[in-house]
TrEMBL record:
This is Transposase IS66. Residues 37-109 form the Transposase TnpC homeodomain domain. It comes from Alicycliphilus denitrificans (strain DSM 14773 / CIP 107495 / K601). It comes from the Bacteria. Residues 460-497 form the Transposase IS66 C-terminal domain. Residues 172-453 form the Transposase IS66 central domain.
Length: 504
């Protein structure tokens, strides 16, 4: 607003007051706009070095090829599981596998009958043996396990007896459960693409083609899926859940381009005894994916303010907000401009979190009592203070946005005060989703929807094992060893929070 000095001198008192009010309003608007731009500039500077682009190289193309091989192997396993048992096929010539390198160490595992006395009472004689070799791997060292099955014959009734060999996840392949566990852990915990693993194995003495590794990954993903389904059912059996999501690039079929998919994560509440997390890979961030995962579940869901959860709240799910998100708005505001309003808000949040540290080890009744006695007055006073402050700041300022975030969600943000099983924030699930975010720089994108879903399934088991203090390699090796002969009705025994290794 520009006013000429001569024109200003000709105005009467009423007109001067009107001009003054306009100038003050414009000044307040400019101050709010300047505060907003200063806040955004400071926030962008803090994030400037947080993410760097990485161009696609020839190696990235191989990642897609690996996923296609893994998808094909997984589909083959699923088709095999759906088909009814067939009659014994006629003998046909099978392609001959190249023998494993002779220089690798061997460990013999002998299978002999418990008794060499025939059913007719005669003593059997050993007439030969069958030998099968499987490739094992201890990080950095390949060994070969020789499964020797002695043949025993009875000369009286002309029968031959051999001890059976236990079933393997890949019966007709060369890998042991230890090698398969190593490949899965390297790919889904250490985020080592298969072409890198091929090079690592080459340095250990045998470069396993990445196409073969991909087939193993696909087969293991299909075999482990019933265990992941059981883990999901276990998670949905709790009244309190955490929910969060993080973006993951996924390749569009046939286009060679990527689009933004999402990995959703769900875990029992931080105060629940069960330590588990289930990842759900979906093509988008649409709320329908959350509703599909939760299904008929009705309980308290701790999450941020993403609109995708709103439909679930209208269907009986109780919303529990994240106090850390509300605090973060004021933290960013204070970091950008040393706002006094933000500083006062942060002080009150700090008092609430100090109480939470004290009630962490308490039982639920004691936790509820302390929250009602100490946290409730602080939060009530903070709410009244925020309402008064909001009346004094411009509507488009950064301060107003920080205040509005809390005021609009106050009931959900403070629900934990009346429910001792609710934590005050969603940090628990954010910690479980962080390994995925850290790994994105290595694998860049998922090669297909199936590949993303397989990654989510295996990572659910690995991260859940870590949450329970297990070594993921030892856990997966044992599970892959026992899974082929484990009863489906007792699959829950192999869940990470219930798993007990077999003492040898």
């Amino acid at each position: 607003m520009v006013i000429d000095e001569q024109a200003l001198s000709e105005l009467d008192a009423e007109q001067l007051r009107e001009v003054t009010q306009r100038l003050l309003a414009e000044l307040r608007h400019q101050r709010a706009l300047n505060e907003k731009l200063t806040y955004e500039c400071a926030l962008l500077k803090r994030l400037k070095f947080a993410a760097q682009s990485e161009r696609h190289s020839a190696d990235q193309k191989s990642l897609l090829e690996d996923e296609i091989d893994a998808d094909l192997a997984a589909v083959a396993v699923e088709i095999e599981q759906l088909q009814p048992p067939a009659a014994a096929p006629e003998a046909k010539q099978q392609p001959k596998r190249q023998p494993l390198p002779a220089h690798l160490p061997r460990r013999e595992i002998r299978h002999e009958p418990e008794s060499t006395t025939c059913a007719c009472g005669c003593r059997m004689q050993r007439i030969g043996e069958d030998v099968a070799e499987k490739l094992d791997y201890v990080p950095g060292v390949f060994t070969v396990e020789r499964y020797i099955r002695g043949k025993w014959a009875c000369t009286q009734c002309e029968t031959i007896t051999q001890a059976p060999v236990e079933a393997h996840v890949i019966d007709k392949g060369i890998p042991t459960a230890g090698l398969l566990a190593q490949v899965l852990v390297a790919k889904y915990q250490d985020h080592q693409p298969l072409y890198r693993q091929e090079n690592i194995f080459g340095r250990a003495g045998l470069a396993i083609p990445r196409s073969t590794l991909a087939q193993w990954v696909g087969t293991c993903g299909a075999r482990l899926q019933p265990l992941v389904d059981a883990l999901k059912a276990e998670v949905l059996g709790h009244r309190v859940l955490h929910g969060d999501e993080t973006p993951v690039a996924m390749l569009k079929p046939g286009s060679g381009k990527t689009h933004r998919a999402y990995l959703w994560a769900y875990a029992p509440g931080a105060f629940e005894a069960t330590r588990a997390v289930v990842y759900d890979f979906c093509e988008s961030r649409a709320g329908e994916h959350a509703r599909a995962f939760l299904g008929d579940w009705r309980g308290s869901l701790i999450c941020d303010d993403y609109a995708g959860y709103k439909a679930s709240f209208s269907q009986g799910v109780t919303e529990a907000g994240c106090l850390a998100h509300a605090r973060r708005k004021f933290f960013d505001l204070h970091a950008a401009g040393k706002s006094q309003i933000a500083e006062l808000a942060l002080m009150q949040f700090a008092r609430v979190y100090e109480i939470e540290r004290q009630v962490q080890p308490l039982a639920a009744p004691e936790r509820l009592q302390v929250r009602q006695q100490h946290s409730r007055p602080i939060l009530d006073a903070l709410h009244q203070w925020m309402v008064l402050q909001r009346q004094q700041v411009a509507g488009n300022s950064a301060t107003a946005k920080a205040l509005d975030y809390s005021l609009k969600r106050w009931a959900a943000l403070t629900r934990f005060v009346d429910d001792p099983q609710l934590p005050p924030d969603n940090n628990w699930i954010e910690n479980q989703i962080r390994p995925v975010a850290l790994g994105r720089s290595n694998w860049l994108f998922a090669g297909s929807l199936r590949a993303g879903q397989r990654a989510a399934a295996v990572m659910s088991l690995i991260q859940s094992a870590r949450m329970n203090g297990h070594d993921p390699y030892a856990y997966l090796k044992d599970v892959l060893t026992r899974l082929p002969t484990h009863k489906a009705s007792r699959i829950e025994e192999l869940l990470p929070h219930r798993w007990q290794p077999i003492d040898i």
